[in-house]
TrEMBL record, chain A:
This is Penicillin-binding protein activator LpoB. Keywords: Signal. Residues 1-21 form the signal peptide. It comes from the Bacteria.
Automatic annotation (TrEMBL), chain B:
It comes from the Bacteria. The lineage of its organism: Bacteria, Pseudomonadati, Thermodesulfobacteriota, Thermodesulfobacteria, Thermodesulfobacteriales. This is FlgD Ig-like domain-containing protein. It comes from Thermosulfurimonas dismutans.
Amino acid sequence: MNFRRTVWACLLLWMCVSCFGHEPELRIAANREPGICRVAVLPFVNQTKKEGVGEMLTRIVISEMVEQGLDVTEEGVVKRFLERERYLPGTYVSANLIRKMGDEFGVRAVVGGVVTEAREVGQQVKLGFIFWVRDTRDGHFLWGTYYIREGEDYRTVLHFGKISSMSGLAGRMVEEILQASMKRRLFRCRVSS
Amino acid sequence: MLKRVLNKGFWLAILILLWAAVARAQIIVLPFEDLSKGLNGINIEIARAVADYLSGEGFQVIYPEEVIPELARLRVKSPGWVDRVVARELMQKFRARYILLGTVLEMDRQEPLLGLSVRILRTEDFRLIWGGTVSYTGKDWHPLLGLKKVTFQDFLHWSCERLFAGLKEELRMQSMPPPVVAVDEVLLRPRSVRGGERVECAVRLRISGPPPDKMGVDLGKRWVPLFKQGAYYLAFWKAPKDEGRYPVNLVIRWEKGWRIEKRIFLATYRVDNTPPEIELRIYRARQTPEAPAFKNYVELRPYLRNADHISRWLLQVFPENGAQPVISEEGLGKLPPRFIWRGTDASGHPLREGVYRVRLKVWDQAGNSSWKETKLIFVNAPPKAEVKAVKDGNKLKISFRIAPHPVPLRGWTLEITDEKGRIIRELKGEDPVNRELVLKGLSSSLRYTLRLRDVLGNRVIVRNRKIVPVVMQAKKEKKKPKKAEEWVSEF
């Protein structure tokens, strides 16, 4: 009887840990101002061998941000701006460039990132990327996170919950980052009457 | 008649056109960028399927095939994104309000696998108004007992359903002006509260637009939902334990449609757990070793050591060993700058001399209370002095007594003069005294002058008063009556 109870307790605990163990750890600057609503997204830099992961993540980030109600500058405008400024993709984004983006698009922050890991072997997928947000007034980093996850991490009971596609995993990770930022009011759109 | 009908018809047509513009928004569906085919991949099939779905939902759709010649004319390399020039050209060409941009993130018809990301751009202000990402894979599809097989077409249909759920309402709402909120009245009580006590907030609002999805008050770290009761929206919560000033903001959210949040500052309240620190300074009184003493009146000035808001005060005067106050006076609001006590009771009758306890109790707005008590000596009469003389033969004993007094004496002088006004004896002192002088061989018509004063200024001056001695006489022995020595004849 006691053995059964112990097994059930362990199972319950494992389920709880599986269900609630995913939240990105955000590194937030001390002098950050909450409630950023208007942002521009720079193309994510792909440092992996898997082609198209940077573009995939960029699109997912833009779509998820729009879905969360943020005012996001269209990617085409950002790309045209980067071409005009002769910015080489993958190089460091200078504070001056960030400031110019703020002036031109009227945004408070610029979002960008680097994909550091993207693996897909059979049903196992793994994705790791850096996500950062910079202030357009001075180019300083406002907050950021390095988030790495496997599809297996989302498994709850038996085979349920597991994510086996790269786009599914990326979508879930971006959603978690945005939700964590919304919870801390780092991103927030509000209209005061 | 015909004119009237035509006029009516014209306005009806205008109304129908306006309704059509709102209800059947025109959306340009661009060919999708296909990342599964490489960085320059294009997918028209999926884009067409999406266009079909939207058309089935009642939107007026420009299909990707119709747009391709225009994209070629504008030299658009990648249909995954557009700039302002392209967006405006497309808007002018197709008279469309929206452009749908899509990306096939992953695709495999055999597995099946489909990852889609879409966003909708409003052409008039070049703003992204809709976005979404979905991903389905057969690897994660686990039907019950493995009975149902899922196909790529299923994924495509589900993706469309998920990506565009609520789009119609969103576009309809966006064609209307956003809701407006006006706060008519805010009641927040108490404004100052002790930690853990209940705070109540009532707000009277006017909302123009659809009812909000969420309404509540944002307390910094907490969110308390508002509920409607009569004309007011109410919220209750317990004040935090930590002292400080806390803002109360009204937050109203519309999750659908405009996706806006209105945040209106309502008021602040203060958590105060510290009782007011009060000091009672005494003026118009003389400091004595025992306590401050006064003769006519005393002035008590209360001072608050910490910046606190007093809501109520109570001043009581007790006898030294009594529990029943002789004066009790209270008030609401700020403390008066001074209290003046003239040594009387509540009816204005003078009290007896003695020691009294004055207690001032105060309450701050949060209900914290504290009190301060001080002793006061009330003396409005000079000390009692007594000069007596007793004459015993040629001796004159003069006894001089000053009774104990509640406050110290400043000094006293006693001069004894003879009938010609010459000073025979002079005594001085500063304390109560009980002395006896013996004068010999003096006439009995002596006079004295007494000057006596305490530290409060109560004084006695007796000038040239005659000393009337009590004459002592020796007791005469009472002689016993002699018995009759003579015999009385019997009869």
